[in-house]
Design a protein that fits this description.
The complex is a heterodimer of chains A (112) and B (236). Chain A has 112 residues and is mainly alpha-helical. Chain A has helices at residues 2-16, 26-48, 54-78, 83-111. In chain A, α2 packs antiparallel against α3 (54-78) and α2 runs parallel beside α4. Chain B is built from 5 helices and 8 strands, in the order αααβαββββββαβ. Chain B has helices at residues 2-31, 40-76, 80-96, 127-139, 187-196; strands at 101-112, 144-147, 150-152, 158-160, 165-168, 171-174, 179-184, 206-218. The longest helix of chain B has 37 residues, at 40-76. Chain B starts with a helix and ends in an 18-residue tail after the last strand. Classes of the chains: A mainly alpha (112), B alpha+beta (236).
Chain lengths: 112, 236
């Protein structure tokens, strides 16, 4: 619940305030956002299986974001679309986590 | 207490995620959907076709012009009047950029300064900077100028374009790459003028360098000039 409130608060701040981040960083931010979504789905899965740890979630959130953005930047400089690797890997993990979350929720509703 | 702390941290992290998602959506919407739907492969193929067409047309023009030069030389050899007309014609051609020309002059370099993340918000050179520099060179005696081997004459318009490009006539130069301005004229006079006062100054985004040159070659303009609206005033 508190996570949803935090998310809504972040969306409101994003809508109301105009922050000037250089446009050249936009492609790296989009890959970082994707990596953060993977962490969030992983956290949801962990909380449903009752082994959520906030330190792992936070370190994964920022670590994955920085690594994904760094790889995208490196790929730009090398002329290789390395960001594709991040998109494929994180996309796969998001779908895997979503499948586990879906099964866990369905199990929960069945037991109730 | 520890639990509340971890929950607050999770809330803060989700807040950051929400903000980043919203910022990214806003940015993509601002850029518009038209640029994201452009097919890069189609544009590359079109550019290659047009470049090939342009090359073929330029070769045709060159061969026709060499035939014209031959006819003119034959006519000139016949009498002095024709020679005078031919010389005046050549002067006019040099003025409008129809002839490649060479001579002494100065070469002016504008070098953009790269940064690690390429996040320097200042465009190294603007259209106004170029216009001002060329105007100054003309005012200190330049007889012909070129920018990155693009001949600039009286009817060559210079204006800023998108993506850091500057449009010169029908060609483009990137303000994020080196710009070389060549000017034919009295090299000592022009060098002295630039040494005493630079039309554009060095900034954090660019460095300026200029030097005298004994031989500078400036190519011609591959363009046919025509007047759709202007007409000569008849002399009484």
């Amino acid at each position: 619940m508190i996570a949803v409130i935090g998310l809504l608060l972040g969306i409101i701040i994003g809508v109301l305030f105009d922050v000037n981040i250089p446009r050249e960083l936009s492609p790296y931010i989009s890959v970082a956002v994707f990596a953060c979504l993977d962490s969030v789905f992983g956290a949801l899965r962990a909380s449903l299986s009752k082994n959520f740890r906030s330190d792992i979630f936070i370190s994964g959130f920022f670590g994955n974001a920085v690594l994904a953005a760094g790889l995208a930047y490196l790929g730009d400089k090398l002329g290789i679309p390395v960001y594709l690797a991040a998109v494929i890997v994180f996309g796969g993990r998001i779908f895997n986590n979503f499948a586990v979350i879906r099964r866990a929720l369905l199990e929960k509703t069945r037991l109730h | 207490m520890k639990k509340i702390g971890s929950q607050l941290t999770v809330a803060l992290v989700c807040c950051i995620l929400g903000f980043m998602l919203t910022y990214q959506f806003k940015l993509v919407n601002q850029q518009g959907t038209s640029s994201s739907q452009v097919n890069n492969a189609d544009i590359t193929v079109q550019i290659e076709q047009l470049t090939k067409q342009k090359q073929e047309l330029a070769e045709k023009v060159n061969s026709l012009q060499s035939k014209i030069s031959e006819y003119e030389k034959n006519a000139v050899d016949k009498n002095d009047l024709n020679k005078a007309l031919y010389d005046e014609l050549n002067t006019d051609r040099m003025m409008v950029g129809s002839l490649p020309i060479k001579g002494e002059g100065i070469t002016f370099y504008i070098n953009p300064v790269g940064s690690f993340l390429n996040t320097n918000p200042d465009q190294p050179v603007t259209g106004e900077d170029l216009t001002y520099t060329l105007n100054y060179l003309f005012s200190v005696g330049a007889e012909a100028v070129s920018v990155n081997d693009i001949r600039v004459v009286a009817r060559t318009g210079i204006k800023a374009s998108s993506g850091g490009l500057i449009k010169i006539g029908t060609d483009y130069v990137s303000s994020y790459k080196q710009i070389i301005i060549r000017a034919i004229g009295d090299k000592n006079k022009m060098y002295g003028a630039l040494d005493s006062w630079l039309p554009i100054k060095q900034t954090t985004a660019r460095t300026i360098k200029f030097e005298k040159s004994d031989i500078i070659t400036i190519p011609k303009i591959n363009k046919e000039w025509k007047f759709d609206f202007a007409q000569p005033v008849e002399s009484k």
